[in-house]
């Protein structure tokens, strides 16, 4: 796998491990949810640029790159369909194929019954985009191996997904003073709540509770917000 850098929702750098030959991505814990909208677009374009590289089948048994434990096969369900994932049992992250990533991010859509029937007239077997198993679409209405619905890389779905992520990225990078103020206040509230909870738990353990400290913390919170 090769390391590629992207941005998360907070504008910070994050690294993804990508294998172009097996067409898969390793996400550390929750990294698939942390990608900024612009990074989702960048990753999709990068996948498209490497689409013609030699492809190797994914191993039947895969290990976590962090702890070497066997990855557990599972499924996630989103609006655009069901897709397969391979998770570390120690919660270090997950391996996702390109096709699973595209389902997760809305670049594909499930095929209608009419589309499946039309395709069946011309093609006898296809390969499941989730698990790679051959499927006879003339008799199967879903993959008999992983039960994933048939999905289609639809140009309209791709265009709509790209447009949606571009709009979300523009909104994310546009600095609205009111939104920034709200974000600062909420961040301070969250931090103050965490500090307050920690003090309460410490006081319970020691048998006392210092109310003055909580008041000072509240005054400090207001001061930090007003002076930013």
Topology:
Layout lengths: L1 E6 L5 E7 L4 E5 L2 H4 L2 H13 L22 E7 L2 E7 L5 E5 H7 L4 E2 L2 H10 L2 E3 L6 E3 L14 E2 L2 H19 L3 H30 L4 H16 L2
Antiparallel strand pairs: 1-2, 2-3, 3-6, 4-5, 5-6, 7-10, 8-9
State the main characteristics.
alpha+beta; 3 domains; 6-stranded antiparallel β-sheet; two-stranded antiparallel sheet; 7 helices; 43% helix
Question: Could you describe the 3D structure shown?
Answer:
The chain is built from seven helices and ten strands. The strands form three sheets. The protein has a six-stranded antiparallel sheet. With about 230 residues, the protein is α+β, with helices and mostly antiparallel strands. Helix content is about 45%, strand content about 20%. It has helices spanning about 30-35, 35-50, 100-105, 115-120, 155-175, 175-205, 210-225, and strands at about 1-5, 15-20, 25-30, 70-80, 80-85, 95, 110, 125, 135, 150. It is globular.
Model regions low in confidence, pLDDT < 50 over at least 5 residues: 208-223
Number of structural units classed as domains? 3
Biggest β-sheet: strands ordered side by side in the sheet: 1-2-3-6-5-4
**Which sequence of SSEs, written as H and E, runs from N to C?**
EEEHHEEEHEHEEEHHH
List the total number of helices.
7
Radius of gyration: 23 Å
| Overall pLDDT confidence | 75
What portion of residues is helical? 40-55%
Structural classification: alpha+beta
Offer a quick outline of the entry:
The chain is α+β, with helices and mostly antiparallel strands.
